[in-house]
Design goal:
alpha/beta; about 270 residues; single chain
């Protein structure tokens, strides 16, 4: 199994590269960066040595090294340099970037599964699908960030551990996301949230993005997105595309369509 991580020097790509290697989810992890080639080389040396006893080849490379890749994780869209009010503000500057990367993927490994992890995930996943003219079942915009955050808020509201909570968010990764209060389970038992509880939780959701942007860190939620990449990759390896598209219990999948299929188990997007 060969997995390529695009944007490997970024806040998503670098921890994802390490995790794929340390968990032995691939025989080879190909790290592709951008302008910061010195950082890419440093990460290659660091990660390769850290996992040297795991028999996983970790190497820095370029798009010409993609042939033979089974899964491409595209985390290469740059984060905005200004404070955003909405994730969709990143669409215009990122469209051409994602399109160019997609064409390189098509040229060098057209049969690979593509997992897009960039903002705004829904339209950029669709751009990737159109640009590459791929099988729609091989282009996945996948993550679970909003569902994770939803569960944290539920846990705080009911005074329990987050590990005890189930709950899903569907729709756009943004201001129109839909919190499925009917999906709430605590210790496996359904919980009927009253209207006041629902409103309190709904009121906290937009504050999360505002707080993240207010820090002006120039970074996205890299370690949270790592779990999305991990879940999607493990399902591809274990079960194949259909299982990861419709059966993953922890996230929702972005199919490359302008309208999104909400059947099956669903999760969420980035940052």
């Amino acid at each position: 199994m060969k997995i390529a991580v695009l944007g490997a020097t970024g806040s998503i790509g670098s921890p994802t590269s390490y995790y794929l290697a340390v968990q032995q989810l691939a025989d080879e992890v190909l790290m592709i960066g951008g302008k910061r080639q010195n950082v890419l080389q440093q990460l290659e040396m660091d990660i390769a040595t850290a996992v040297s006893s795991h028999d996983v080849l970790v190497r820095a490379g370029d798009y010409e090294d993609l042939p033979g890749t089974d899964i491409v994780i595209n985390a290469a869209a740059p984060h905005a340099k200004v404070v955003l009010k909405d994730r969709n503000e990143m669409l215009a500057p990122n469209i051409n970037h994602v399109r160019e990367i997609t064409l390189k993927i098509k040229q060098h490994c057209p049969d690979a599964i593509i997992i897009n992890v960039n903002n705004p995930i829904e339209p950029l996943n669709y751009v990737s699908y159109l640009a590459g003219e791929f099988d729609r079942m091989k282009v996945i915009g996948y993550s679970a960030n909003d569902s994770f955050r939803f569960r944290e808020l539920i846990a705080a509201e009911y005074g329990v551990k987050t590990s005890q909570v189930e709950g899903l968010v569907i729709g756009e990764h943004g201001s129109t996301q839909v919190l499925l209060f009917s999906s709430i389970r605590i210790d496996g038992k359904p919980v009927a949230a009253d209207e006041q509880t629902k409103q309190r939780i709904k009121g906290e959701i937009p504050k999360i993005f505002k707080r993240l942007e207010g820090l002006k860190a120039g970074r996205t939620a890299g370690y949270l997105c790592l779990w999305d990449c991990r879940n999607g990759t493990r399902n591809q390896i274990r079960h194949g595309k259909a299982a990861s598209l419709f059966s993953h219990p922890q996230g929702r999948v972005r199919l490359p369509e302008p309208l999104y299929d909400r059947s099956g188990d669903c999760g969420q997007g980035r940052s």
